[in-house]
Amino acid sequence: MIDRKVNRRSVLRLTAAGAGVVVASRYGVGAVFAQVPPLEEKDTYTIGFAQTGLNNPWRLAESKSMQDEAARLGYTLVETNANEDTAKQIADVASLIAQGVDILIFPPRESQALAPSVVQAKEAGIPVILIDRDVDHEIAKPGEDYVTFIGSDFVDQGRRAAEWLVEATGGEAKIIQLEGTTGADPAIDRKQGFEDYLAGTFKGTPTPAGAHSGMEIIASQTGSFTRDQGRSVMQTLLQSNPDVTAVYAHNDEMAVGAIAALEEAGRTPGEDVIVVSIDGENAALDAILDGTLGASVESSPFFGPIAFETMAKYIAGEDIPDWVLVEDRFFDESNAGEFQGKQF
Ligand code: GYE
Questions:
Q1: Residues 6+ apart with CB under 8 A from 297
Q2: Which of 225, 250, 331, 344 should be mutated for ligand 1, with most atoms under 8 A from CB?
Q3: What is the mean pLDDT of residues 92-100?
Q4: Potential cystine with 253: which of 70, 207, 227, 291 (Cβ 3.0-4.6 Å)?
Q5: Residues 309 and 293 occupy one common structural domain
Q6: Which ligand 1 atom sits nearest the alpha carbon of residue 56?
């Protein structure tokens, strides 16, 4: 499992850190840069869980899933809350490292900003499993600096939203895109998957459907994954883009906010403006059933079981893939009733 060689990147980092720097680690200096620190078999573990914030149903569901699974296993979960402040999350991770937790399992709020924190954990001899968001692989690599990323294919989520929207609008739409948190992996990838699909490519390969030249993105701005900002950004964008006929929101909370803004402006979401988003929360299923939201690609927050199962495999010395892919369902009017109230 941990028979990974010191590669060029590790060597460069060692040089950059200064050859004379002594790195404090439970596993000795040599091992630190070569591989993810191992985790020994014990009766119980202390897990550092640095949450990005608790300001929406998705985050609350994720935290509860982690808490429930840790409790079920009799492990101690030390949870921090960064209140959607990246600098705070960096400090939270540093503090969990200083406390000497056995392992860190957390969602990095921003993909570049949190990558050095992942490397710092490794250098302190603490393995990291990333859940729900990934870091920039140019700075920290799965299988080398951290165990793995467990989460969805966000590029594909964007593609699926685009594909549905093309169908729903007959290939003709003036789209406002509400982006997620700037610098967050799902915001970057959901934008790319959506825009690339409309341009006729998917992950660098031409799509059979080709380019959709009638689908025009007329404005694209961040709403930071929140309902409030989804609403206020939509209010502003509506003023300058009254010709909008579709909204693609990177998550349901922003879609729900945008729907409110559209209604306030006298528009009829679901009729004159078609809305699509991602997550599959209860409020989105309700909106699908009342006709204001068209569809939502699932992005599950229930990481507890899969995170702890992956941790157990790592302890047992099993080979963990660099990416533990979470498969997502799709919600629209055909199945929203079945799942209504059962999500989060
Ligand atoms: O879609 C969003 C949340 O990182 C995948 O973050 C997650 C996203 C999720 O705030 O609602």
A1: 157, 160, 161, 164, 277, 278, 279, 280, 328, 330, 331
A2: 225
A3: 98
A4: 227
A5: no
A6: 10
Instruction: Return the best residue to mutate from 251, 276, 328, 344 for the ligand 1 pocket (most ligand atoms within 8 A of CB).
Output: 251
Average pLDDT of the segment spanning 316-338:
98
Testing ligand 1's pocket by substitution, the residue of 279, 325, 328, 343 carrying the most ligand atoms inside 8 A of its CB is 279
pTM reported for the whole predicted model: 0.91
Under 8 Å between Cβ of 284 and 296: yes
Q: What is the pLDDT of residue 9?
A: 36
Contact predicate 199/211, CB 8 Å: yes
Q: Which residue has the higher pLDDT, 64 or 24?
A: 64
Return the pLDDT at 34.
Answer: 75
175 and 304 inside one domain? no
Q: Flag whether pLDDT at 155 surpasses 70.
A: yes
> Of the ranges 3-12, 123-132, 141-150, which one carries the lowest mean pLDDT score?
3-12
**Overall number of domains in the chain:** 2
Q: Kindly state the percentage of the chain with pLDDT values over 90.
A: 90
pLDDT band at 33 (very low <50, low <70, confident <90, very high): low
221 and 284 inside one domain: yes
- Taking the centre of ligand 1 as the mean of its atom positions, its distance from the CA of residue 140, in whole angstroms, is 21
Atom of ligand 1 nearest to the CA of 58: 11
Per-residue tokens: 250: 């990177």
pLDDT over 70 at 285, yes or no? yes
Residues 6+ apart with CB under 8 A from 18: none
Domain harbouring 187, CATH code: 3.40.50.2300
Same domain, 241 and 145: no
How far CA 64 is from CA of 45, 71, 256, 305, 322, in Å, comes to: 18, 10, 23, 11, 25
What burial letters (b/e) apply to 277-292, b meaning 16+ CB within 10 Å?
A: bbbbbbbbbebbeeeb
Beta-bridge partners for 146: 142
Q: Does the beta carbon of 142 lie inside 6 Å of ligand 1? A: no
| Pairing of the two strands 205-206 and 215-222 | unpaired
Identify whether 175 is part of a domain.
yes
Q: What is the mean pLDDT of residues 56-84?
A: 98
